[in-house]
Amino acid sequence: MPAGSDSETKAAQVVLDVRPTPADVTAAAAAHIVDAAAVAVAAAGRFTIALSGGSTPRALYTLLATTPYASRIDWSRVHVFWGDERCVPPDHPGSNYRMTREVLLDPVKIPPANVHRIHGEDEPHSAAAAYDGALRQAFPVSPAQFDLMLLGMGDNGHTASLFPGLTAVQESARWVVAEYVAEVSMWRVTLTPAIINAAAHVLLLVAGADKAPMLRRVLEGPRDPNALPVQIVKPAGQLTWLVDAAAASHLTRFRG
Fold first, then answer.
1. What is the CATH number of the domain that holds 169?
2. Distance between CA atoms of residues 17 and 204, nearest Å
């Protein structure tokens, strides 16, 4: 990824992992989660993960709820958070929480106390402030360091609900903000770079030929995170781009 300014958090390690198909991406991501959970539980007694919405994550969560993956994770030690949420009720078809609950949380029986959802049904700014407070309570140090954060990349270069041109892309103090995204005519609540870049490991999933032009812009083009918010992702720990061959088909080089 093009280098940032000296004032920005630098990724300790950037990995581009290209797999043949979307199914291979999903399987590799599941293996990452199983391994990360085992390490975190052994070290700290719990595993904290921030989840993403979207079709690729849905396939991943569905896989995690099946044999053999489901039995390889101690779900009683897993604490689930979200990277962003639409400002809709938790039973709305567009809710990231609802999707995750249906395909993963209920099947593996994660304890309700371990599920930390964004209350998208509340007034957006109130929901953001409440989630910011919840994160600060859930993590003993500041900034909060997730063991693993799952993110995706939209075909416009957004990640989480950090869309091009939004002030949240440059947020350095608050961990969670609410933004009205005109592009989708909806309020969203999103984690900010202040907490995203504190993660021990960010796993960025990208699949499909429709993402190929944008992936090349992001990884090989000029650095412009206001226009390409996913470029702001430079965690203190490891950043793994886990992509399929179709999404990687336009790449000619990769700069970490």
1. 3.40.50.1360
2. 10
